[in-house]
Amino acid sequence: MIDWKEVIIRLLLAAFFGAVIGLERERKDWAAGLRTHMMVCLGAALSMIVSTYGFNDVLGKEGIGLDPSRVAAQVISGIGFIGAGTILFLRQGTIRGLTTASGLWTVAAIGLATGGGLYFAAAMTTILAIIILWILQPIERKFSSRFKQKSIKIITVNKDKSVEIVNSIFRLNNADITAFLLDKTEDEFVISFKFKKINKTELVQLIKDWQADTAIKEVVWG
């Protein structure tokens, strides 16, 4: 059996490792913050302890054979339900929460490692997770902004207005259009463009004109 002092050390370390990553998420005001990450890591650590030592009283009895990894394995698959709840579909082509979901999955793995007594592996994973989530974020933004395509969506209730909008965008100088979609529903026209490169000054003026036009219901630029 595992000593009770060792149990306390493992559970406290799991809560600490979860808190370190949770603080980074809390800093950005995500729904899964400090306490959520602590609880996931703590629960995973306890699951690992139970999986490893919780069945010692029945092991060795006739007709009983146990795989000590089964409880821990269910943590990895079960954490997917919590991770899925942090993913938000804001609008077409825009998804948020994937990093938080992957962070929760990693925190669960850190908890399992801590519960299994792999302190060095758990600590190193925590350090690397903080580097990935916090320190690498400005670098990611710098490089992704160079390759990220800009998109615009305009919703209008007028057919002639939709034609006018499409023509005005195609007339923009130095506009490198990579995708175009015109979708008609029962009572509105949805126009979507994606750009690799565009003259922002001209587009901003167009957006101002569209926002002042009563025939246009919505303009989304991002």
From TrEMBL:
How does the entry describe its membrane topology?
Multi-pass membrane protein
Q: What is this protein called?
A: MgtC/SapB family protein
Membrane-crossing residues? 7-24, 36-59, 71-91, 103-136
Keyword Transmembrane helix in record: yes
Q: Which family does it belong to?
A: Belongs to the MgtC/SapB family.
Coarse class of the primary localization is membrane
**Keywords for this entry?**
Cell membrane, Membrane, Transmembrane, Transmembrane helix
Q: Which InterPro entries does its entry note?
A: MgtC/SapB/SrpB/YhiD_fam, MgtC_SapB_SrpB_YhiD_N
Naming one, the record's GO cellular component terms include:
plasma membrane
> Any idea where the MgtC/SapB/SrpB/YhiD N-terminal domain is?
11-141
One Pfam family for this entry, by name?
A: MgtC
Record keyword Cell membrane present = yes
Provide the protein's localization: Cell membrane
